[in-house]
Amino acid sequence: MSVQDVTSTGTGPTVTGKDLEVVVTDEPGSAAATGELVAAPSGRPGWGRALLAAFLPPGLVFVAFIGLWYLVSYELLDPDQREILVPPLHEVLQVGFFNHDNLFELLGGLWQTTMVAFVGLLIAVAIGLATAVAMSQARWVERSLFPYAVVLQCIPILALVPLIGFWLDFGFSARVVVCVLISLFPIITNTLFGLQSVEPGQQDLFTLHGASRWTRLTKLQFPAALPAIFTGLRISAGLSVVGAVVGDLFFKQGENPGIGSLIGLYLNRLLQQQLFAAIILSSALGVVVFWLFGFIGQRAVGSWHVTSSRDGR
């Protein structure tokens, strides 16, 4: 039984019911038996417990993954196989990251891949939002365009990559087009879902006030669709990194190779330590981009949406 509003009237500090609970007990001489209120913790986790709950589970999984890595490398493989298949982590770090020349080469490729993924994602966001808004405003536009969006998603992108390379000379533009094709569909579908998911009662309220189509879109539909839009952005952000790496891996003829080109080079030369280092860097790029758009989404949506309250559990 919690106390909602209690304030002490003595000379002591003021205490509110948010920090108190009434402790009921039948023991003689207890504070509850004499009608007194006993301060008890409110049950809210502190910062330490919150951080522990947030980082301990993934930390344990990471430690287990590293342990499995070393188990496979040293217990299941002989020295020759270990060098080719699964080199231990400390060798990957020493050769790939602690060697200045290798690190400089990897960071240069990572920067090129980041630029391709960023530009491709911006173009996909612009095209996806415009397409979804157009489909939400007219049923005939949705019936005309949505099937082709589905077809674009279902086409194996690896079948289109060689054609895109021939058409655009295997350069920066070709890599950007691959990123756009891979990351476009989630933005369209999530934005369209959010724009069409406004509550009917709110739609009726805007209709009663004679709101224009533009006012309804900017004041009602678009704000209500923000959670769905940022969900699509998070998915597409990770896919844009995948598209940039895939484009680099196939477009070896182009200038300024990205980290995907380095992955292909290391694979052909059996430079396994550098290969694993490149894979780690490309994976880290995808995680950072995914987290960045999740962070922006939380700040844009604020605390009014249900997903924000779940994040604070």
Q: What are the defining features of this structure?
A:
313 residues, mainly alpha, 3 domains, MetI-like fold, disordered C terminus, disordered N terminus, globular
Total number of domains: 3
Give the distance, in angstroms, between the N- and C-terminal Cα atoms: 22 Å
SSE series: HHHHHHHHHHHH
CATH superfamily of the largest domain: MetI-like
CATH-level-2 architecture of the largest domain: Orthogonal Bundle
List the helices and strands and how they pair.
Elements lengths: L46 H30 L2 H6 L4 H9 L2 H38 L1 H16 L2 H12 L3 H24 L4 H9 L4 H38 L8 H10 L3 H30 L4 H6 L2
Helix pairs in contact: 3-11, 4-5, 4-7, 4-9, 4-10, 4-11, 5-7, 6-7, 7-9, 9-10, 9-11, 10-11
